Amino acid sequence: MSESLSGRFLGGAGGRYVSFCALYLFIYYGFGAFSPLITQYYKSIHLTGTQIGMISAVAPVVSIVAQPMWGMICDRFQIRKAVLLGTLLASGLVGLLFTAVSTYAFVFLLYILLSFFQSAIIPVSDSLTLNYTKKHQLQFGDIRMWGAVGFALAAFVTGLFVERWGPSVLFISYCLALITALLFLMRLPGEVTESSRFTVSIFKGMKQLLRIPRFLLFLLASFCMFGAVNANNIWFSLYYQEIGGTVAGVGLAFLLFAGSEAPFMKLAGYFVRRWGIETTLLGAAIFSAIRWFWYSSAPSTTAVLLIFFIQGVSVGFYLATAAQFVRENTPASLQVTALAVFFSVGSGLGTMLCNLLAGWIKDEFSTLAIYLFFGVVTTLGILPLLVIRFGPWKRVEQDEGVSATQ
């Protein structure tokens, strides 16, 4: 590429592409600094396990309510970029307020406020990026993977900072990362933010979806699977220290865990073609259950780090194939609704319940018992996957609608 062509690329379409990649890198850097290490802050202000569980359960509940509202605002006024700019700034500033509070009541209220703004960030950024990639015939995954890179790097780097300077540094890292993401968002022209509708009511078409046995079974499986996986992001920090690890070690563990997901996501396509999507999902869930039961036996921190790739096998495979399963097993006219319901049930309700019960289990028993609970929950999620794999119900034909499930 000549020098003039290279300059044009970086200043035009290439510059936008880089800005989108950086947007994801820093958004997820902020989340990676916050989520894996927030329990260190809770520990420093002496919250109980039940209190931590209650706070951690707030975000999914707020998201279920707030996401449709943000979507309606974006659709009604066609201001996706403005909404994302505002929520990135508000989220970063609210994050900083945590450094000034140390009581359960104030932390709980701040977390509600933070979750309200956070709930817009991922859906709106995904909407902008999907519009851009569709227009320019690019792969969404090639941009989205920078989020995984940012999350992994943040967990490691912030873990080192927290161990040296205390938990307040995680809020500073979170705020700076979102402000940096905002700066890259400002580089994107307005034309990539307008087009196609952003949201759909999750209740539209619910009657049809509830008549699809395979979809209902998968909702139950994902409720259990994602509930445990997402709750692990909150409780792993305390667990790792209980088995003898350090705060810096928590960051290293998340670096390895998150880093292992990308290659297994790439491999998931091969496994789906070779053994089918149902078998791939079933295998991922089985590995996940084995992981949690093994964690509950208090293995050494060295063993946990050495077998880091078990997250790639379980979470990487499941994440890479779950949305595909939903698309292939619901009518084309209801797939956006089906995906919204899937995320609300798995990442919303499942995470809420697992965090609530995990907090109570920690207070009544131990952190190790939390992972025994995760193993039991995930095992329950394997049962509907077995029915999907070996049961009588076949996949929905995209042009036939729900009648094909009967």
General description of the model:
The protein is mainly α and 406 residues long. The chain has 2 domains: 11-199, MFS general substrate transporter like domains (Growth Hormone, Chain: A), CATH 1.20.1250.20; 204-406, Growth Hormone, Chain: A (Up-down Bundle). It is 80% helix and 0% strand. It has 17 helices and no strands. The chain has helices spanning 3-11, 13-34, 38-44, 49-56, 58-77, 80-97, 104-136, 140-165, 168-186, 206-209, 213-242, 247-275, 277-296, 301-306, 310-328, 335-364, 367-390. Helix 8 packs antiparallel against helix 9 (168-186), helix 12 (247-275) packs antiparallel against helix 13 (277-296) and helix 13 (277-296) packs antiparallel against helix 15 (310-328). Residues 1-11, 191-200 and 398-406 have low confidence and may be disordered.
What's the layout of helices and strands?
Layout: H1 3-11, H2 13-34, H3 38-44, H4 49-56, H5 58-77, H6 80-97, H7 104-136, H8 140-165, H9 168-186, H10 206-209, H11 213-242, H12 247-275, H13 277-296, H14 301-306, H15 310-328, H16 335-364, H17 367-390
Helix pairs in contact: 1-2, 2-8, 2-9, 4-7, 4-16, 5-7, 5-16, 6-7, 6-9, 8-9, 8-12, 11-16, 11-17, 12-13, 12-15, 13-15, 13-17, 16-17
Keywords: Cell membrane, Membrane, Transmembrane, Transmembrane helix, Transport
Protein name: MFS transporter, PPP family, 3-phenylpropionic acid transporter
GO molecular function: cytidine transmembrane transporter activity; uridine transmembrane transporter activity
